[in-house]
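This part of the workshop introduces the protein records we will be handling. A record pairs a protein's sequence with a compact description of its fold. Comparing a sequence with its tokens is the quickest way to learn the format. To make this concrete, we reproduce a full record directly below:
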Amino acid sequence: MISGLVGLLVAVLIVGLILALVLWLIEEIPIDARFKQFAKVLAIVIAILIIIIRALPLAGVPIT
């Protein structure tokens, strides 16, 4: 159980760092503000889904 939580913590840190980099890159791209907002929301949703998929096995939900 502890190893699973440590693995989840590491995953959260890695996904958070990658998300911060992606959000920074989105800000640097010279595109319209609507598309930037859409890209930011999409990146955040993907990051949240990755964290949820990593956390579900700790709750006993099998991922197939």
Notes: The two ends are 20 Å apart (CA to CA).
